[in-house]
Amino acid sequence: xxxxxxxxLIILSLLGCTSTQKxxxxxxxxxxxxxxxxxxxxxxxxxxVAAVISPQGTAESYQPLIDYLxxxxxxxxxxxxxxxxxxxxxxxxxxxxxxxxxxxxxxxxGHDTFGMELLVAPQVKTEAVYYSVLIVPLDSxxxxxxxxxxxxFAFTDPISFSGxxxxxxxxxxxxxxxxxxFERTFFTYSHDxxxxxxxxxxxxxxxxxxxxxxxxxxxxxxxxxxxxxxxRSSAFAIPPVVTGPQI
Length: 247
Prior knowledge:
Layout: E1 45-49, H1 55-73, E2 77-80, H2 85-94, E3 99-101, H3 104-114, E4 117-120, E5 129-130, E6 132-137, E7 152-155, H4 161-172, H5 178-181, E8 184-187, H6 191-199, E9 205-209, H7 210-219, E10 227-232, E11 236-237, E12 241-243
Parallel strand pairs: 1-2, 1-3, 7-8, 7-9
Antiparallel strand pairs: 3-12, 4-12, 5-11, 6-9, 6-10
Helix pairs in contact: 2-3
């Protein structure tokens, strides 16, 4: 971790009091409070979270962690958000953030491109894995990716592993590619927005992070009446916490 030491120079002002009319008395036994030290200018720890969920959802979900880190480090912690996974990688590469929560494929790309370093892998319910789940509207007759041919499909992010890479792999297994397989595709730039797109009928299918899907169902149980899972991938290593090469 980058060690950032900022020293505050304390200026002591000597106050004198003179009067031609009256002599002032000074008693060394009297105690006066010391002057208050002004707020120190401390460089915050800058943390970025890839847009796995929407900016509002990210701020709400990660604020308790931001507050916890700040209290433990006795240092301000600043949450920096960007719209795409690639932009989060760029922040790390430029040294504009100190650490970040990124997706699996974003880590692979960052590691190969500029030396992104894995710091730690989170655990959820004692496991450090997640899955890509293929979802469709509850009343959809689709039971597999093959049934979504000629349909509208929502991708999450161009370099999302669970939301773009894996569903593209499923299509490749059918000897096709997204351009020719689907009628139309679009990006939602977050997994919760992809779930919303399917739930509201804007897309006939999407692939999302299972952790985000489970969290969405927990927060809004009515989603179970609008969306269902038709495919679940094998386990993948959970998205890591990373640092840039400058750390």
